[in-house]
From TrEMBL:
It comes from the Bacteria. It comes from Pinibacter aurantiacus. The lineage of its organism: Bacteria, Pseudomonadati, Bacteroidota, Chitinophagia, Chitinophagales. Keywords: Acyltransferase, Transferase. Belongs to the transferase hexapeptide repeat family. Pfam families: Hexapep. GO terms for molecular function: acyltransferase activity. This is Acyltransferase. CDD domains: LbH_MAT_like (cd04647).
Amino acid sequence: MTVKGIIKRLIGYKPKNVPVDKLAILRESGNLVYGDNCKFEGFSVASVGYKKGYPNVKIGNNCYLCCNIMLQDDAAQVIIGDGTYIGPGTLIFCKEKITFDNDIMVSWDCTFIDTNAHSLHSKERASDVADSMKGPLHKNWAVVKNAPVHIKSKSWIGFNSIILKGVTLEEGTIIGAGSVVSKSTEDYGIYAGNPAVLVKKTD
């Protein structure tokens, strides 16, 4: 080892491009709040902007999260209760509010979205591509419909499922793999298909 190398080791030298723990920064700024005994693997939060001190993501205790959260507004909010698992590849795309209660299991590659993302009218979305090339802050959300998503306690969502805007999964709902859920469910119902329909009741 060179003299320079020895000196660097002695003074605790670190290279300039040290990775920064983004979750720690978000927690320090108050944009991310989480409880005790939480485990994060591949978990990420991205937003078009943040307001310091505003809890965009609130997580309870004993959660295991491997998902990605994309916030489309600096006031968007994702709330995750206690004892919840959300698997890898799952995307939570939030414009206004998406809520997970307690003791929920979400498999891999699912999508939760509380917005249409684009207008249903062709003239209103004609400039969407050009606007997106300018950056997310140039998107015209005024012509887009949004509605909150609520996943109630003890629900289980199978892999590759999609939960669309305005949907409430009542307590104990099970969603079969690959389903597209466009309407709210009954409690302790098993749903499957595209669009998802009630298959049978459970407990």
